[in-house]
Amino acid sequence: MAEKVLVTGGAGYIGSHCVVELIEAGYQPVVVDNYSNAVRGEGNVAESIRRIEKLLNTSIEFHELDLLDRPALEKLFKKHSFSAVMHFAGLKAVGESVEQPLRYYRVNLTASMNLMEVMQAHKVHNLVFSSSATVYGDPQHLPIDEQHPVGACTNPYGKTKYFIEEMIKDHCKSEKDWNAVLLRYFNPIGAHASGQIGEDPQGIPNNLMPYVAQVAVERRPFLNVFGNDYETVDGTGVRDYIHVVDLAKGHIAALKKLKDNCGCQVYNLGTGKGYSVLQMVKAMEKASGKEIKYKIAPRREGDIASCYADPRLAEKELGWTAAFDLERMCEDLWRWQSMNPTGFTNGVPS
Q: What range(s) does the NAD(P)-binding domain occupy (predicted)?
């Protein structure tokens, strides 16, 4: 029997790519999502999940479920015997978190507490948590390794990730039979090579590359480049971009690590290379063959000049490295965006 893995927020961008990798690695994912970052498809199944079923010629158990609904979560755990949980569910827009901090604390923290308490009650003691490089705050040194201080987060979204990490660490200390891997992502971009699933932001994209891709398909007139006076190669902000499929494979490596009774471990998932905003724009122009118009705008509050990972610990202990280069990231992103100019709603009857 294939091991059952619960995937919370599994219809979203990163979650859906992990569902593909789980199936291809021989696991049986059970997916829950409340549609806060996903599109409803036919038959009351998320469109991303429906497309994965078609792509891999399989069926996936999917439930519309909000982790704040504790009774529904209890019911799911009574029905299934999960070997592990991958926890992606949560609100994730940095700007929105500054405007609505209480909502972010209530949703992200309560959801995680509900999940861990129900896991504990049903003796499910293996967890992979989707964290973020935002827990590091402003970098004190580069590249950022896992020993870099955490907690000086510049926004409530980052703080929720930090608080959840702390909750998991404390729980693993008190419950010796628990194992958790906390994965701190840098900047996931790209899409599955099939062009069937990818990042489909609801409303105006908060992240650079979905915005750039939407400019390329003429959904947006131009890109605002926030600040060109940073101490970087061309004055624009530098970040570590990682292909979402590489990221998903990192989660499979983390799942295997749990088998070692590893306690609570933390790993960066990044490439270790930094690229500037204008370098990303040029790379996307090359992949798409389109001109990407942009305007220089003032710096945004809270933005930093450079941020990139030291990913060597994940290589050493998980046997994982990022395989895809920038060219491939942009090619796959362009394939997804050009095949789905309006995102998942392309294939969904209105």
A: 6-332
